[in-house]
Every structure is written in structure tokens, then in C-alpha cells.
Amino acid sequence: MSVSLRIGIIGGGGWLGGAIAGAILDAGLVEPRNLSLSYRSERPRRFPNSFLTTDNQALADRSDVIVLSVRPDDWHALDVDAGGKLVISVMAGIRLDALSERHNTGRVIRALPNAAAEVAKSYTPWIGASDVSEDDRALVRAVFQACGSEDEVARESDIDYLTGLSGSGPAFPALLAAAMMRDAVANGLPAEIARRAVNTVITGAGRLLERRDECPDDVVQAFVGYRGTTAAAIEGMRAAGFNASVAEGLSAAFKKSVSMGDAS
Asked: Is 25 annotated as ligand-binding?
């Protein structure tokens, strides 16, 4: 991959855009002088050797690859002509055909990294339009492997579903952790001890699953098989509707992603 590659991130001053910028710089995919970031109000200080601008078209004109990292609601006012260049959208809900028409290019990628890109632990599903070349695909893989791991999926509906499952990133483990911590404090544990216990459980579980790379259901069943306190907890959560709640949440996220695409 050419070291002279020029990448521009519209919304590079934001959390996700900044995380992607940091990841591709760390991986050596782009030199700082060939990285462009746009921002709306506060000039980011993290990338002093890169091109920073509030002019999104100026960023597009000096880039070979344009990453769209803005809120979907803000995209509707984004008037940028890519002129046939590769455009990678990391926005939820906005579909390939809408991106292609708005930005004047058939080389469009729809991807969905999550906030864990900041620590190179994002999972990113993505799909390309028909005009995307194999060289384009290789570049997309390199970008999102720098952010963690990635998969090319076969259908846009897969991206809509994964918007909830993986696009939410640390939100769901954090939701579980918050519920566990509230219960621990309600049972008399000091908040500091409860926080440390819960955060260590969640991060330790993530590392164990990553290292062993087993089916999560097999891990759960192994604990159930011991018939001890963990099995009692799992059975209690299931009886209270844990599985149904998760399915309902993922269904709500899927419907929201589809409706956002319909609105575009």
C-alpha cells in the first residue's frame, strides 16, 4: 500500500473519527501530512502534523479516500462531491445508493466500527457497492484491521442488524456492568469496591473470550454444568427474561437503523 496515500476524515474531530485517525496513523497506513481531518467548532489538538479544516470539500479535494464520520442527522446537510473517489461511511442507517448519489461516486463502502476503535478492539462489519474494486477492498480491510477486526458481509440488511449488535460496542457490557454495580451497592458494598469488582469482571471476561475464541453459549453452559452459584445466577436472570430483553433491544436497534435509511 502506497505510503503517499491521502486519507480525509470528515468529522475527524469527533470521538469515532479521531479513533480511526489514531489507529491508521499508528498502523502506518497514512503519514500525518497526508491525513486530513475536518471539524465543526473546536479545532482538535491531537493531530498537530495533519491538515485540519472546517471546509469539507477542501478535505475531499486533497484526499484519495474520504471517510464520513458524522451523525446521520448531520449528513443530510453535508454537500461534498467525491468525484469518483472511494468513500467510506461509518454512519448508521445511511444506505449505499443514497451515499453514491449524494457524493457522486460508485465506489462506496458502508461500514460500522464502534467506539472500541480507540483501543484497536473494534469489530467492523462492512459492505461495498458494485463499483468497489479489489484494491479498494484491500484498503478497507487494512483500515479496519488497524481499528481491530473486520468482516465483509453479503447484505446491507446484515449491516442494519449489526448496527445494534456490534455497532453499540461497549454500551451493552457497560449496561450489564451498571446493573451489577447498582445491585452491589444496594447490598451494602462501597461504591469504589463495587465499581472495581464489576469492571474487572467485565474486562476479564472479554479477554478470556478473546483468548479462547469459544462460542459464548459453550462458556455459559460450562458454568451451568457446575450447578453452583453461577448456575443459580444464570437461571435466575433467564427466568426474569434476560434473553428476551436482549432480543428486544437488538430488534429495536435493527428497526431504528432501517428507519434511518428510509429517511435518507
From this structure: no
